[in-house]
Design a protein that fits this description.
The longest helix is centred in the first third of the chain and has 25 residues, at 2-26. This protein is 58% helix and 0% strand. It is built from five helices and no strands. It is mainly α. Mean pLDDT is 83; it is low at 12-24. Helix 4 crosses helix 5 (92-102).
Length: 106
């Protein structure tokens, strides 16, 4: 009986460790996002997300950010209107970092 309990506890700890390590890998880094935003986005969207060009979303007012991260990832990967696609240029993690930075503008 004791052997079953130990095996069950080991399995539970292994599963929890896997969950914790995968959650850490998916956590977004707004500091890295700020660096990437300044390189790739600020020319059109402005340094504080207010939209440097006509028709750009004002991220400081939340425009364009009232959707799930997955939807924003798709827009950034595929491009939209005059915005180029960043698939292949930025990893999904980099894009999530940029989104985390955008959400600091609010």
């Amino acid at each position: 009986m004791r052997m079953k309990t130990s095996a069950g506890l080991f399995t539970l700890l292994l599963a929890l460790g896997g969950l914790l390590s995968s959650a850490g890998a998916m956590a977004a880094d707004p500091r890295n996002g700020a660096k990437l935003y300044n390189i790739h986005c600020s020319n059109c969207h402005g340094p504080r997300g207010r939209g440097a060009l006509p028709g750009m979303s004002d991220f400081s007012r939340g425009q364009g950010l009232f959707v799930a991260n997955a939807a924003l990832v798709k827009v950034i990967e595929n491009g939209s209107g005059v915005m180029p696609a960043y698939r292949g240029l930025l990893s999904t993690q980099d894009i999530l970092d940029v989104i985390a930075h955008l959400r600091t503008f609010q």
